[in-house]
Amino acid sequence: MKPYVHKTFVVQLQAGDTDRFPVLAHLGYDPDDPFAVTAVFSLDGRVLARWRLDREMVAEGLAGPVGVGDVRLRPVSSGAQRELRMEFLGDPLPGGGRHHAVVFVWAPAIASFLSRTYDVVLPGQEEIRVDDFLAEVIARG
Half-sphere exposure of 10 toward its Cβ, with a 13 Å CA cutoff? Predict the structure, then answer.
């Protein structure tokens, strides 16, 4: 059995026109879902958002802009501070537009987390058990 990788750290959230404020980010990697990283953002024990991110996209976001849909990532730096900017577009708002939030994560922390996932499943070595997946889909009916 391959180990589950988990890391919790403080990130900066900017929602709408607000200033940044700290929230917890819980990143998880399950080798049974080898292409995905789960990100759960919480504040005072309450889950604010949960996203399934493409592991390769997160890695690419550390080097340059990626994403054209609901999730967009890009590196940013101010002085010696290197961050990963994670932009999330959510559900539509009643008056038009969409919920929008930006999370700023210390880039070396993301790189360290990804490195730990590579210890479990190397990039390019991900496998999906197609038979198990199809059985699950059929069982849901």
Answer: 4
Q: How many residues are present in the chain?
A: 141
pLDDT digit string, tens, across residues 32-75: 899 999 999 999 999 999 999 999 999 999 999 999 889 999 99
Backbone angles phi, psi at 93, to 5 degrees: -90, 150
Amino acid at 137: V
Name the nearest CA neighbour of 129 among 118, 141, 137. 137
| Residues 53 and 36: beta-carbon distance below 8 Å | yes
pTM: 0.83
- Of 124, 115, 130, 135, nearest to 35 by C-alpha is 124
Residues 6 or more apart whose CB falls under 8 angstroms from that of 84 comprise 58, 61, 62, 73, 74, 75, 76, 104, 105, 106, 107, 110
Phi (first) and psi of residue 120, to 5 degrees: -90, -50
